Amino acid sequence: MQVVLRICGLAAAVTAMSILVSPVWAEGGEGGEGAVGDSWIQVHLSTLDARFGDVVTLLETFLFADLGTGVPLIVVLLLLGGIYYSFYFGWLSFRGFRHAIDVIRGRYDDPDGPGEISHFQALTSALSATVGLGNIAGVAIAVSIGGPGAIFWMVVTAVFGMSSKLASCTLAIMYRKIHPDGRVSGGPMYYLEKGLEGKGMGEFGRTLAVVFAFLTIGGSLGGGNMFQANQTLEILSTVSPFFRDYNWLVGLIMSALVGLVIIGGIRRIGRVTSRIVPVMCVLYVAFSLLIIISHIGDIPDMIARIVGDAFTGPAAFGGFLGVLVTGIKRAAFSNEAGLGSAAFAHAAAKTTEAAREGMVAMIGPFIDTIVICLMTGLVCMSTGVYADPHFQASEGFIVGAKMTAAAFDSFLPGASYALAIAVVLFAYSTMISWCYYGERAWEYLFGGSTILVYRIIFVCFVFLGAVTALSNVLSFSDMMILGMAFPNIIGGIILSPQIKACLQDYWGRLQRGEMKRYD
Q1: Distance CA 90, CA 83 (A)
Q2: Does the pLDDT value for residue 55 go beyond 70?
Q3: Would residue 475 count as lying in a domain?
């Protein structure tokens, strides 16, 4: 099995490099024009796009099957998983909220604890992967497709998603692997394999783990990489055509900056994200608040509209079910609750308490969706740009970034420059964190000795995302990211009695005052 996986890994590396050094990137060609973007090159890119399109169609048949209900199976799984965890854990996501904030503030940080990064760095590393273009472009897309009511379902999904994050990141600490040099290998693959093996379901657990790992690698190269680079170019091009004309140069710069950080592993990623994430969140939230406060008198009506439309919705998009599905899907893309991705970052936290890190992780969906996504929705509503016919969903993901930029500019001409800075920071932090996620999945499948191969592939795909517009590649990778929910939630629910026992033990000791503090 390991031999087969290693061969697959090397094949993937060769394929990735062949794309970059193929005649598509070479000067000359049959047309003789020798410029990226000429007709001959476009033919090759269109062929590649069409092949991915076939794969996308196949995946859609399974991942987005609705069984005649009108609601995709993956959407049902994400929502029901969060609801199950919330009630089964006794709504610890609410009861433990204040304690989680104390942990993030460092009051329970043990400097000698096993792991690589602090609780705060683990949270910012996870947030750097979730707080990004999903908050800027994704929310605008949800509003343009499902109307203001989609925001309501995004918030509801995040409330239940807090418990999903609590579950997966508690398991991440319980089943992580700490190497002799202190380096941590962790993530859903380990608790799916080892956890289910302990229940006599070894083969099933191993299968789920391998499927999850492959989905993670695909998602990291697409949604966590190419999409980020592509949309960074798109928002920068609204500032100046220079960035579009010299997309190859921007791609090289982004590739170099990503490479400088990922070579240092999770320790360097944690240090970088602990600085970038607070800055970019404050920058974005500050400008959003200025716009919202300037329309403070309209806030009650906007909230009423959000709640009211959540149960009616625009008939053109399927009414209630259309709004519900749109909200849940956009929330899942934004905060990744239930997908298991955050478990990679939180597994590296310095702690011996699995439940403690799970409680830190549950704050992620609150910040990502309940705070930042809600603000984006209110900005688009208060400025009125969401109703502009120029910002309809026919343009896909691109329309989201354009809509939010227009909302900023309608309030203060030139404010889109600040948004462009935020987008660059969002995309950059997302790429370096998703590289770490994919790296851990790659290590699980192909061994630690081949990690450099994955890093080279990842950096190459940063450049590829900047100079191409392969929409099917992005759709494919997004479906892989959503697909991660299948093995993660199925395995997590099977292991939920162990999670609950761990949480109850920790909460009991906390209430009895038995927890050591370091403040």
Answers
A1: 11
A2: no
A3: yes
With cut-offs at 50, 70 and 90, classify the pLDDT of residue 97: very high
DSSP string, 256-307: HHHHHHHTTHHHHHHHHHHHHHHHHHHHHHHHHHHHHHHTGGGHHHHHHHHH
pLDDT of residue 191: 93
* Domain containing residue 472: CATH number: 1.20.1740
pLDDT at 232: 78
- The per-residue pLDDT for 29 is 41
Task: Give 225's DSSP letter.
Answer: I
Ramachandran assignment for 22, one of left (phi > 0), alpha (psi -120 to 50 degrees), beta (any other): beta
Who's near 225: CB < 8 A, 6+ residues apart? 431, 434, 435, 458, 461, 462, 465
Give the whole-angstrom CA distance, residue 28 versus residue 480: 36
Number of domains in the chain: 1
Q: For residues 354 and 67, what is the distance between their CA atoms, to the nearest angstrom?
A: 38
Of 170-174, 343-347, 384-388, 472-476, least confident by mean pLDDT is 472-476
Mean pLDDT computed over 452-474: 77
Taking the C-alpha atoms of residue 363 and residue 105, their distance in angstroms, rounded to an integer, is 12
**Of 285, 430, 367, 349, which Cα lies nearest the Cα of 103?**
349
pLDDT tens digits, one per residue of 150-161: 788 888 888 998
Distance CA 277, CA 279 (A): 5
Which residues pair with residue 178 across a beta bridge?
Answer: 184
**Mean pLDDT for the chain?**
76
pLDDT-based confidence at residue 67 (cuts at 50, 70, 90): low
Rounded Cα distance between 14 and 460, Å, is: 12
Q: Looking at the domain assignment, is residue 38 inside a domain?
A: no
CA distances to 234, 313, 343, 454, 477 from 259, in Å:
22, 45, 23, 12, 21
Answer for the pair 261, 276: CB distance below 8 angstroms, yes or no: no
Does a structural domain hold residue 49?
no
Residue with tokens 């949480």: 503
The structure's pTM equals: 0.79
- Owning domain of residue 217: 2-7+72-508
What pLDDT was estimated at residue 190? 92
Q: Which of 457, 424, 464, 460 is nearest to 442 (CA)?
A: 457
Question: pLDDT higher for 131 or 32?
Answer: 131
Which tops the pLDDT comparison, 257 or 132?
257
Task: Pick the closest to residue 269 from 77, 437, 140 (CA basis).
Answer: 437
Amino acid sitting at position 462: V
Helices 451-467 and 2-21 pack at an angle, to 10 degrees, of 30
Does 283 reside within a domain? yes
Quote the CA–CA distance of 496 and 167 in Å, as a whole number: 8
Evaluate whether 1 touches 193 at the Cβ level (below 8 Å).
no
